[in-house]
Amino acid sequence: MKNPQEILRKYWGYENFKASQKPIIDAVLSGKDVLALLPTGGGKSLCYQIPAMANEGLCIVVSPLIALIQNQVQQLKALGIKSIALTGGISKEELNNLLDNCVYGNYKFLYLSPERLQQEIVKDRIAQMQVSLLAIDEAHCISEWGNDFRPAYLNCALLRDIKPEAPLIALTATATAKVAHDITENLQFREHQIFKDSFNRENIYFGVIWEENKQKRLIELCENSDKSVIVYVRSRRMTQVLTAYLNKKNVSATFYHGGIPKEEKEKKLNSWLNNEVRIMVATNAFGMGIDKADVSLVVHYQIPESLENYYQEAGRAGRNGLPAKAILITNKEDEIQLKNQFLKVLPDISFLKQLYNKLNNYFQIPYGTLPEETYPFRFEEFCDLYQLNSPMAYNGLRILDQNSVISLSQNFSRKTTVQFLVSKNHLLDYLERHQRLAPLVQTILRTYGGIFDFETKINTLLISKKASIQEEKIINALAQLDKDEIIRLKASSRDLELVFLVPREDNLTINYFSKKVEAQLQTKSDKVDSMLAYIKNAKLCRNRQLLSYFGEKSYQNCNNCDVCNSPTELDMNNFRAIKNEIIELLQQKESNSRTIIKELQQNEFLVLKVLQKLLEEGNISINSKNEYNLQR
């Protein structure tokens, strides 16, 4: 066994441990199971990496995201530490060789997704490995009450059966008391310790801005930050829309989401990590495990579904300990959109019973029987036949899968994305020569906006119905348009495969787990309500609200959030004076908000409020350089 302090210094270059890192490492080295609840930026990975380096043998790390796994392995390899990642797209032969390396090659780390633990070859080889430690990262995914329940995480308990002698450490940045209990139960903790560092991030300014023109306010915020920025949105399409807007306004930005090809992802990520691009507009998975300490601003452009997600994403600001901001821009429409996206598509028990009944009828399963075959399943066709809401039906299928009524592959439905590459005039000329394609093209253009600007996911079954053309002919026509370089087509057939796991008993089948489902649906609803309550509560310190949600009592205001820094009556008396100072400054020269705040030396929040008021009244405007100027 080597000294943890020496390992820290030799490989990572740090002289001292942060917060609870040292006691966590000592507990692991003493052979205890550990649950580590550390905030984002709290250095969770070192809590298992250093004990693994201090002992003989291999550390097996279960992690939910391929990008996170690859990032961790690359970092370890750069330090000269032998590490292996079992990612997707590996052939059986390659998988066999990688597992052999873990058995015989003196490797220190094996990273894999929880789904890999379903493979017999993986379980058999783990049994042959000399394992010093089991590490479960993002452990909240194992809890049905967590914000990101992933059924495959329940497989992690198999590692205890295969390697009962190895201690286990579970790590997460977001866990309520109920979720923490779930983690220790599901992972069969033995003699164990729980460590929880304060979730208080004193260097982060938390703020909520109510704004009708969110794009303009986003420009102001980005322009006022001279370091790296992350802007979080809820859809892939929105990442592209906002990036195009920012670039149009001469603000350096790129976008990142799960649908981007691997090489392009790496290119975008590296351009941001190397500060070639300042702003990353991304969906919520971005940033997990990515070590970039100088993010000075995290903006939530749309409301997250839970405070767990919000806090984890906001915590990617200021990891270097310097002052940083986490701002949520919202308006009244956002609340409606949030509920539509996360609550209105949650299936209740009545819908689940209806869905299960129609599923059996669709495959003609007689009552009381259990078929033993795997069925190919056209999901969109099924929803269309029974007039089902697609998102609600998909969520219902996931619940049936989680409760072992059915087993379904997660690659469902045909995914087709289209982007037109030619000008509208060129397209008209093309359709003059290929008139048989005109009805299809016209239907697509009427159905999907922005398809000339962005890759757009289209529903070929919907287009088929609207244009009265067989779906197969639609697919062939799209291939022709792609070949003629009129569109860029990305199409993959990813139909669902379904296996029934219990005999058909209709309502009785659902009744077995109905109370649990009702409780889970209530939990999801409560999480959305808590998120909205946080946004609307402008009386209690933001930091205290967040700490209270995660079970940490605080009786002191942070004095570093929008609530604590809201304008006092005295400030409001200065409103007119600041307004006059801004006008006087802009009479001399056009200036951006950063320059105005610096020159006025006034409360930043109040200066931005005055600027917004002047914009609304039409007294000032913003030019293409993001500078304010007086309206003459």
What's the gist of this structure?
By secondary structure, this protein is of the alpha/beta class. Helices cover 45% and strands 16% of the residues.
What's the overall average pLDDT, rounded?
87
Structural class: alpha/beta
Alpha carbon gap, first and last residue: 75 Å
Q: What is the gyration radius calculated from CA atoms?
A: 27 Å
Instruction: Give the low-pLDDT segments.
Output: none
Main beta-sheet annotation: 7 strands, parallel
Count of separate structural domains: 5
Find the count of extended strands (DSSP E, 2+ residues).
Answer: 21
> By CATH's scheme, which homologous superfamily of the largest domain applies?
P-loop containing nucleotide triphosphate hydrolases
CATH topology of the largest domain: Rossmann fold
| Gross CATH architecture of the largest domain | 3-Layer(aba) Sandwich
Question: For the record, what CATH class of the largest domain applies?
Answer: Alpha Beta
Shape: globular
Major sheet strand order: 3-4-2-5-6-1-7
Give the count of helical stretches: 27
Helix content: 40-55%
Strand content: 15-25%
Task: Give your account of this protein's structure.
By secondary structure, the protein is an alpha/beta fold. It has five domains: about 5-195, 3-Layer(aba) Sandwich (Rossmann fold), CATH 3.40.50.300; about 205-340 and about 525-550, Rossmann fold, CATH 3.40.50; about 345-410 and about 495-510, Arc Repressor Mutant, subunit A (Orthogonal Bundle), CATH 1.10.10.10; about 415-490; about 570-630, Winged helix-like DNA-binding domain superfamily/Winged helix DNA-binding domain (Arc Repressor Mutant, subunit A). About 45% of the residues lie in helices and about 15% in strands. Strands 3-4-2-5-6-1-7 form a seven-stranded parallel beta sheet, sandwiched between helices. Strand 5, helix 7 and strand 6 form a beta-alpha-beta unit. Helix 13 packs antiparallel against helix 22 (about 515-535), helix 18 (about 440-445) packs across helix 19 (about 460-465) and helix 25 (about 575-590) packs across helix 27 (about 605-615). The radius of gyration is 27 Å and the shape is globular.
